[in-house]
Amino acid sequence: MKKNILACVIFLSFLYGFGSSSGADMWKKHMDLNLTLTQNSYSDNWAGGEAGNISWVANANSGFEKKVSEKINSKSTIKLAFGQTHQQDKDTKEWMKPFKSTDLFDFESVLRFTLNVWVDPYLAGRLESQFLDASVDQIKRYFNPIKISESAGIARVFYKKETSEFMSRLGLGLRQHINREITDTLQEKTDVKTSNDGGIESVTDLKVGLASGKISYTSKLTLFKAIFYSKSDELVGLPEENYWKWVDVNWENMFSSSITKYLTVNLYVQFLYDKEVDKKGRLKETLALGLTYKLF
C-alpha cells in the first residue's frame, strides 16, 4: 500500500513539477472563491413545528494551464468545497451539533504531448477525497476515503477558444482505493484497507462561456470500465461477484452566472453510478446564490 501511495505521489509531483518548468508562454490561470449562506429563523411562539437553520458552503475552483514547450501542454485543476448545516431542535429550539452538507477535494493534472497530428498522447493523474469522513460521529477521519487514478492514452481537442473548450481523451487507467475502516468504535481504532483495479477510461470535458464570461457552463463526464480488480477472488459465489465489471459513471455539471462583480448564481448537478456502491444511480443537486471573488 505504501508503495502505491508513494508511486502516485511521485507521479502527481512529476506532472505538476514538469508543468511548472520555464517556458515561453505565460500561465493561463484562474481561481474563483465563493461563499453561500442560507438562514431561517422563527419566534418561540411560531406554530407549525418549523425550526431555524443556517447553511453555508465554501467553494474554490482553480485551473492552471501552460504550453511548456512546442510539444508539451500542462493543465491542472483543483476543486475544493466544504459546507455545514446548523439546525435548531423544533421542540426545545436549542441549536444542535452542525452536520456536513458538502465536502470535496479533487485535484487532476494532465500532460498532453502536442504532435500536430489528429490525436495527442497524454499522461494524467487524479486525486479524489473529502476533508472529513463524518459517517461515524465519534471518530474523525480526515481525507478518507482516497481514490488515486493514473491514466495514459490519446486525447483530442475538438474546439478551443478563450472561454470555451471541448476535449476528450481515451486511455488505460489504474485506480487505487484507500479506506481507513473502523474496527473498534470504543477505542477509536481503524484499519487501512486498499484495493486496486485497472481498465479503460474515457474523460470528456466541455466548457462554454457566454456574455463575455459572465455566464458559463462546465461539464465533465468520466467513464471507467474495469478489466481487473484485486478483490475479485473474495467475491466469487456472492451476488455482487460481477458488480465491479460494470461501467462506473461520474457526470459533473456546473452552470454559473455572475449577477454583479461579487454576486453569482451557481447550479451544480452530479450523477454517479457505481454498482458496487448502489444498484441505482445517485444524483446530487445544489443551487446557490452567494458571494464570489476572482483571486486571479
Short description:
The protein is mostly beta strands. It has one helix at residues 2-19, and strands at 28-40, 53-67, 72-87, 99-113, 120-129, 132-133, 141-142, 146-160, 165-184, 189-210, 215-229, 248-258, 263-273, 282-294. It starts with a helix and ends with a strand.
Keywords:
mainly beta; twelve-stranded antiparallel β-barrel; 1 helix; 14 strands; 61% strand
What does this 3D model show about the protein?
The chain is mainly β. It contains one helix and 14 strands, in the order αββββββββββββββ. The strands form two sheets. The chain has a twelve-stranded antiparallel β-barrel with strand order 1-2-3-4-5-8-9-10-11-12-13-14. A two-stranded antiparallel ribbon has the order 6-7.
Question: How are the elements arranged and paired?
Answer:
Layout: H1 2-19, E1 28-40, E2 53-67, E3 72-87, E4 99-113, E5 120-129, E6 132-133, E7 141-142, E8 146-160, E9 165-184, E10 189-210, E11 215-229, E12 248-258, E13 263-273, E14 282-294
Antiparallel strand pairs: 1-2, 1-14, 2-3, 3-4, 4-5, 5-8, 6-7, 8-9, 9-10, 10-11, 11-12, 12-13, 13-14
Radius of gyration: 22 Å
* Tertiary shape: globular
Global mean pLDDT: 86
Say how many strands there are. Answer: 14
Q: Class by helix and strand content?
A: mainly beta
Distance between the termini: 38 Å
Q: DSSP strand (E) fraction?
A: over 45%
Residues in helices, as a percent range:
under 10%
Low-confidence stretches: none
Task: Summarize the biggest pleated sheet.
Answer: 12 strands, antiparallel, barrel
What is the domain tally? 1
Q: Strand sequence of the main sheet, in spatial order?
A: 1-2-3-4-5-8-9-10-11-12-13-14
Number of helices: 1
Order of helices and strands: HEEEEEEEEEEEEEE
